[in-house]
Amino acid sequence: MDAVLALFSAAAPDPITFLNWSTIWTVTVNVLLVIFGINALIIVHEFGHFVVARFCGVRCEKFYIWFDFWGLKFFKFKWGDTEYGLGLFPLGGYVKMLGQEDNPGELRAEIERARLASQLDQNSETNSASETNTVAEKNTAAEKNTAQPNSENHQLHDLEKLNEAVFAPDSYLAKNVPQRLAIIVAGVIMNFLFAIVCATAAYMVGIVETAPAVGSVVSGSPAWEADLQTGDKIIAINDAPTHVFTDINFAMVGGSNGIKLTIERKNNDHPSQESEKIEKTIVPRKRKNDLAPMIGVGSLPTLNLAFIENPVVKDWEKYYSSELLQSLKKNKLSIQTVNGIEVKNYKEYMDVLLRYFDQPVLYRFAGKDPNNENAIESIEGTIPAIPMKEIGIRFKMGAIVSVLPGSDAAQQGIEVGDMILSVDGVTDFDPLKLPQMILQKVNKDQKTVQLVVRKKDGQELTIDTALKPVRIIPELGILSMKDPVGSTALGLAWEVEPIIAAIADESADTVKQLPIGGKVTGVKLLNAQPILKKNSFSVADAEGVQFQNVGDRVDIPYIFSKMLQIAEPVPLTEKQKKAGIVEKIVSVRLQIEDEKGNTKTINLPIMESKDWFNTDRGLLLGAEQAFIQIDNFNEALTLGTQKMIESSLKVYRFLEALGNGSVSPRALGGPVAIVQLAYRFADGGLGSYLMFLCLIGANLAVINIFPMLPLDGGHAVFLIYEGIFRRPPHEIVLVVLSYLGFFLILLLMFWTLFLDFTCIPRL
What we know:
CATH class of the domain at 392-605: Mainly Beta
Radius of gyration: 34 Å
Structural class: alpha+beta
Largest sheet: 5 strands, antiparallel
Distance between the termini: 40 Å
CATH topology of the domain at 392-605: Pdz3 Domain
CATH superfamily of the domain at 392-605: PDZ domain
Strand order of the largest sheet: 25-26-24-27-28
Helix content: 25-40%
CATH architecture of the domain at 392-605: Roll
Shape: globular
Oligomer: single chain
C-alpha cells in the first residue's frame, strides 16, 4: 500500500489531492476486504459439504463461487463429474449434490406419482385398442403418438433423473445415515475450523483492541454504586481473563445474577506501590427502553489526541486561537502538562482539569516534528473555560434515585426516594448544575455540606454530610436516555423532573410567557440536524429534531446536558452557499402543559451559561489500546481455539437473553449492520479484520447448527431420528417444519432489515 500511495504522491504533489487519492484507495481496499470476508465465510461452509460429499462418494454436480442465477456467470469448466464456476452474483456460493433435496420425502413421492401416471396411461391405451378394432382409431392413436414424441420423451427423461437421484450409487440419498450426517455437519465444522484459523492468524499478526479499563462511570449505575473508578483495569470477569473492553459488554448480557469483576487499581497517591487487586460483584441493570443490561462504564481515554483530521469538537473551535487549532490539526500530539502540572494518565488529567473547570488553562502538548521524525515538538496554548448551552430555565429537582454505599450521605440516613431541598442554605439551585456546584466546594477544600432533605414520609431532615474529596463528575450514557444526574463527592444521584421551577433570565419577553409549574412534554431543537437515527423518543423533520415522551422515554438531563450540547445546525448545500443563504442557528421549542391541562409551544434562544461549563475543553482523545501479539504458533493456536469457543458461547448466551427478555430484540443486527461492522474492522488493520472473520464465522456456525429446518442442524436432527428408528420422519412432519422454519427465517430477516434501515427504531 505504501508503494501505491508513493506513486499517487509523486503524480499529484498537492496535499489535498493526495489525501483524496489516499482516502479513495483506503475505502476501496476496505470494501474489497468486506466483500471477500463475507463471501469467504459462506464459501468455506459450502466447501465443507463438498469435500466430505466427495469423500463419501457422492456426485457433486456443481460447485460455484458466487451464484449463477438465470445461468449468468463469469466462467465455468468441468473437471470429472463436477461443473466448477464463478457466478455473476457475489452472494457466497453453493454446492449441488445428486439427489440433494431439502425434503427427500417429496422426491420419493414424486417418483411414485410419475410411475403410477405412466402405468395408468399405458393401461388406458391398451384397453382402448382392444375395444375398438378399426383402422381409423389405430391411425388416430398412431398420429397422437407421432404428434407428441417430445412431450413423452421429456417425461421419460424427468422420470429417469428422479430415479437416478434416489437409486444411483453416487446419489446423496443412496448413502447411509452416518455418511449423510457427516456431509450435513461438515459445513458447520469448517466454519468452526475457519474461525480458529482466523483467530490464530490474528493473534500472530497482532491485534489492537480497546483496553478493558474504566474511563467514565455513569451516575446511579451499578458500576457507580460499586465504586468503580476512572483508571481501574478489569483483568478478569467471573475468573476468566479479560483482554478487550467488549468482553465487559458481553458479560453483561448473561449477568442477570451478577458478574464478578477482578480489578487492578493503581494507588496514585503512592505510585511506587504495587497495584492492588479488588473483587466486586455487580448486577447489570436494564432500564426502560435500554437495548441490553448495562453496568454504566465507558472505555478509558489516553492523553493522545485522536489521530483524525480535526481532534476538536467542531462547535467548540471558536474558543481556540487559530494558531493552536492549526497546530492540533496537523500534528500527532499528546497532552503533557495542564497549568504547569504534569499529567501521566487520564485520571490525573481530569483531576487537574476539574480543579480549574471554570477557568482558562494552559496546555502543553508534545509530539513528533512533522519535518523531523527524530525531533520532539512542543506546543503550548491556552484554552478558555467553555460554557455549556442552556435556555434560561431551571427545572424542578427530582427524587434521589441512588445513594453511594459507604458514603457519609448513606450513613446520615439519606435514602432512595428522598429529595434535596437546599444545599448550604441555597434553595434555588439548578439540579442540572448541582454537580459543578458541589465540585466548586471540593475545589475550595470544603469538608462538609449542609443538606435539607425531605424524606419519603414528608418529614424534613437537616444534616451535615461529609464531602468525598474527589473531583469526579459522572457522565451520562449516550445510549441510555434515563440516566440521572449525580455527584460522586456528595454520593448521591437524582432525577430532574420536566417541570419548570423558575426562570433564570426574565429579560426576554418569550421567557416571561413560561408558566411556572408547567410540565414540558416535548422539546424540539429547531434547525438542528439529526443526532441519532430514527428512534422512539425523537423524530427529525424539516424544522429540526423533536424529543417526545419527555419524562417517560427520555429525561431532561439527556436532552439538555447531552443532546443540546452537541447539537449542530443543518449544513448548507453548495448551491445554498453560492446563493448567499446564511446558516440558521439552533434554537429550542418547548411544548408545555400548564396546571390546567392547556398546552402551548414557546420558542427560546440558546445562550451560553455563565456558571455551567464543559469539563473536557472539546479535545477528542484516543482510547486506551491493548496490543496483543503471540509469536509462538502453539500458543496462538490455543488462544485462537479459546476465542472461537468463547465467541460461540456468547451467541448462545445472547439468544438465551433474548428469550428471557433481558436483551431487547431491537439489539439484533442484519446484513447492513454486519457489512458496516465488517468495514469498521477492516479499517482497523489486518489483525482486527481476521478477528472479525473469527467472530462472524463462529456466529454463522452456531446459527446454522440450530435444530430447525432448513438449517443444517434441522437436517442433522432428522437424520439422527432416521438412524435411531430405521425410517425417516413422516413427510407431513418434514413439510410442516420446513415451511415453519422458512417462515421464521424470513421473519427474522425482515425484522433485522427493518432495524438496519431504521424502519423500526432501535432506541
